[in-house]
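Task: sequence in, structure out. Protein: AAA ATPase domain-containing protein.
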Amino acid sequence: MAWDAVGLERPGAVFDREAEWKALTAFVTDQRPGPALGLVTGRRRQGKTYLLEALTRVTGAFFFRAHEGTERESLESLGEAFAGHTGSPRVPAWRDWDDAVDALLGSGGENPAPVVIDQFPDLVRQSPALPSVVHRAFKRAGYTLRPRLLLGGDSSLVTNRLFTDHSALRALADLSITVDPFDFRQAAAFWDVDDPRLAALLHAVVGGTPAHRSLAAGEGPTGVEDFDAWMCRTVLNPRTPLHWEATRLLNEEADQHDRPLCHAILTAVALGHATTWAITHHVSRPLTDVSHALRLLEHCGLLRGEPDAFLTTALRYRIAEPLLAFDHAVLAPHRSTLEQEDTAGVWEKLASEFTGTAVPAAFAQLCRDWALRFAAPDTFGAPVATAAHGTLPRGEYGPEREAEVVVRGGGGHRPLLSVGQARWNEIMDIHHLDRLRHVLAVLAARGEDISRAKPACYGGAGFSPRLHAAQDREEVLLVDLERLYHGA
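Result:
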């Protein structure tokens, strides 16, 4: 049976993921002769498997999800699933993976035949030669058949090794998709939250990971006034899965590596120690150990190292999963207390840590994401290429100065378009603009071209009349929560 991609509508149960769905349906309906390989990756809990299962239901494709086991057990399970899919009364007795892959690729005849194997890296752990088997099978398939093989895998170290640009599978692939967390606007819609302040608070806890809603029994806060009670019912409640999700996530990703060091590094980053030197000093471990753990956490997608906007040779680390940042900055030090005392009473004490540490960091990242993804082309006077945190070190120019949102344009010289500060609970006033002017003056003294740079204030609590007046004179750009979530 041949399908038309236009007729493969995205099921209503699949929220958003329009670009991913369009790419997948175009891949499985591609009429070109010969086999084609697609790679689908994503961190755990992002809905990768859910998306692939939805695709197989719409197309009637064969779907197999691998599990840990021996090679023989996996071949038998695959054979049983394949027999059930084809309606065969006999389970194929495949001798090895060569037999199995040949059978899968030949199952559709001359029509495009999608075959989905999820958690493919689990099979490779059992059978390290499997990528070479797939490669050989593709060479044997020729051009009369049209198999469309989709391999799925989490963002683990094994997946990264298998699906990177330098691997044999990546060289063979016609399609490569990463299922990322929802951006902050998609996340607000997913949780049915219209209030920008509530959306920002919620995002500082659960981020854009879809599975976190199901781990909270599908329940979100009904309003800002319900947020504290919702926290007590879900994230802070040891009897709910969401309470333990951050711990489980790290344990799964870190596997047999130095988990205590990984926890210590994440705590350091959550508390604002963003550079390798600062992290090493905070955890009191050798630099070689810390550097190894940082690479591991980056490969797992839990940490991101990004160049400082002013010190491009320095990396600043941030936690990619807000729930992990919240857990290490706020929850983990008090978990035993939560198990013994009244949750509401404990949260009353922890709320100030949340609004003083976790929310400001998460809010600054929202502002950078807005500048990069949602700001209108004329907002900064040119297309935005990067939005990053910038640090001017202490020295001849005075005390250390930071700018949470430094926007640069594209091209070889990366022109400076904007220098901004982000404040969550502080009404921003003219002194914030003065600080930005000082930063720009320092940059100019260092030789940076600031002729196109706009000072910007990103405020979660609003702006003073004097700052609004400065905006009217086009001296500053003001971005509030409403603009972050609904404007450009």
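Residues 366-486 form a domain with the Trna Endonuclease; Chain: A, domain 1 fold (CATH 3.40.1350.10).
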